[in-house]
Amino acid sequence: MPQGVPSVIPDDGLTTRARRNQPVLAVHTGDGKGKSTAAFGMAMRAWNAGLDIGVFQFVKSAKWKVGEESALTALGQLHTETGQGGPVQWHKMGEGWSWIRHSGGETEHADQAAQGWAEIRRRIIDQTHQFYVLDEFTYPLNWGWIDVDDVVEVLRAREGKQHVVITGRRAPAALVDAADLVTEMVKTRHPMDAGRKGQRGIEW
């Protein structure tokens, strides 16, 4: 697809503009590094385009910090102060989300994941955001904490122009089949293979 020109033009009755403006469901999966990094990079592009961004991290520990959280939160504050870019909301499961306040063992983590999806589901139906990052979302799907069929149904039926990017290893087949853009990160080499620990500015 050189210079962004599609190699095939489908006979779907849509104009080039209408086809270009369709919302994208992207899945970043695989064992290689860079799934979340790529998703947050897309979120920064979305911010620059003035889109309303909602980030939802499905992580168990509130201690897990990523540099993109600070950067995107600062960009959201810049939008509030100057109108530049778009608004940003960042929510994390390990902190009990922003609408619930509790933490605990495996059962409670599963409950938090389910509550997180319920809130995202509501926002998608209400068209709250224009760009969603569901980070590490494949894990609660694979663990059975969230119903894959319900997720696929909601994503397929979403209205308006709501882009959704999902990250995590072993994306379920039904999710991959529903996606418009699927990228599998394949590890060829990693510094940790040589006994080197993660570095600030590289891993977080």
TrEMBL record:
Keyword field: Transferase
Gene (name only): cobO
Keyword Endoplasmic reticulum: no
Protein EC: 2.5.1.17
EC top class named in words: transferase
InterPro entries: CblAdoTrfase_CobA, P-loop_NTPase
Pfam families xref list: CobA_CobO_BtuR
MF-aspect GO terms: corrinoid adenosyltransferase activity
Keyword Transferase recorded: yes
Organism for this UniProt entry: Gordonia rubripertincta (Rhodococcus corallinus)
Coiled coil: none
This protein's name: Cob(I)yrinic acid a,c-diamide adenosyltransferase
